[in-house]
Amino acid sequence: MRAETLALAEGLSDADATAQSMADASPAKWHLGHTSWFFEALVLEPGHPGYRLFDDRFAYLFNSYYDSVGPRQPRPQRGLLTRPPLADVIAYRHHVDAGLADLMSQGGADEDLLSIIELGLHHEQQHQELLLTDILHLFAQNPLKPAYRPAEPLATGGGAPDLRWIAFDGGILPVGADRDGGDFAFDCETPRHDALVQPFRLASRPVTNGEWMAFMADGGYADPLLWLSDGWATVQAEGWVAPSYWEDRDGDWWTMTLKGPQPVDADAPVTHVSLYEADAFARWAGKRLPTEFEWETAAGSLPVSGNFAGSGRLRPAPAQNDDGLQQMFGDVWEWTASAYAPYPGFAATDGAGGEYNGKFMSGQNVLRGGSCATPDGHVRATYRNFFYPHQRWQFTGLRLAEDG
User: Fold this and answer.
1) Left (φ > 0), alpha (ψ -120 to 50) or beta: where does 324 sit?
2) CA distances from residue 319 to 79, 105, 135, 295, 305 in whole angstroms, order as listed
3) Residues contacting 135, CB < 8 A, separation 6+
């Protein structure tokens, strides 16, 4: 897992890894340092008496939001960390890895530390995805539009899967992760509990770029009746007329990808849209967004397979379950209508790990499914991603629903 993060950063210059394109994004160098600091601060310092800090100043540089651990560099100013250089941050990673290996070889990790190590590995997978999406945003701001990986044209054509509507009966249904089953889940996915789900129908696939173009051509970005109030204010303030990264080139739409600029594939799932945009499209289409429990109920019988990572492709071979659902995992994170809130009976864990998810349960919406940048094995039907309604630099799209 740790080696994969370094592989994703391969080929980045010190400047590439240092720059910060906006407050929501972090430099690649910071991701590399933070995911090492996590293990140093939460595993090695408390659990390995023989461990020696690589540099005691790094705790301030690479702490993210753990107030109980100590102060930190303000998030919008992470791009000011021109020092330490990238080579020193990579050396820091190797130092932490050696400390972890030493701890494990001595049998010094008790059950509590092993639990934190497991959390740290899944935390690192989250940052692998963020590293990619943050590089994409950074490179999109550069007039040269550099490619993160070789810029051969993406495969297009073949047509989107036919859109069908899949009916589900609903009922009082179990949702959430069962940690007693032995599989990992973040705290926000628990506890497993019963939820009332009314009968509903779910679209068999995500909304495509071609369908989004029809929304645009019909004046979707100019009709205030389609938008939530905050969404309409955001459209006006930001001048949105298309998904993020789209550019009109002489009447043809192009988009920035991890392989550089590419023509928009009309058959691929639309991505880089905010909750506000997803909600407006659903209203324009005469449909709605699914709730997170509708989504989870529908996805429960679908085999999970990932595409990891960094290719930027959005058209894997469609996975299909017995109900006919396609592309539920590994194309785009799908916005739901559900607020990110605690499940009944949720309780944060003790210690710094208790700051992991619970403190963010306000003002954000849940997304489900995983994207083309999500690491293989990191997605599951119960996974709850969450972002603010205006954010769209992630690979975020939508799937329509309607009442049954």
Assistant:
1) left
2) 39, 41, 28, 16, 8
3) 12, 16, 28, 148, 258
- Domain 165-403 sits in CATH at 3.90.1580.10
Helix (H) or strand (E) holding 165: strand 165-168
DSSP run (H or E) holding 195: strand 193-197
Residues 243 and 287: their CA atoms lie apart, in Å, by 20
pLDDT in tens, 249-296: 999 999 999 999 999 999 999 999 999 999 999 999 999 999 999 999
- Other Cβ atoms less than 10 A from the Cβ of 28: the count is 26
- Rounded alpha-carbon distances, angstroms, from residue 37 to 15, 67, 95, 96, 302: 21, 14, 11, 8, 36
Given the DSSP bridges, would you call strands 333-339 and 396-397 parallel, antiparallel or unpaired?
Answer: parallel
- Residue 17 backbone dihedrals phi, psi, to 5 degrees: -80, -10
DSSP assignment of 293-352: HHHHHHHTTSPP----SS-----PPPPB-TT--B--SSB-EEEEEEE--PPTT--PPSSG
- The structure tokens 């690589």 sit at 54
List the beta bridge partners of residue 195. 173
Cβ atoms of 404 and 294 closer than 8 Å: no
Question: Pick from 289, 296, 288, 280: which is nearest to 369 by CA?
Answer: 296
CB 368 within 8 A of CB 299: yes
DSSP assigned state of 44? I
Judged by average pLDDT, the poorest of 103-112, 147-156, 281-290, 389-398 is: 147-156
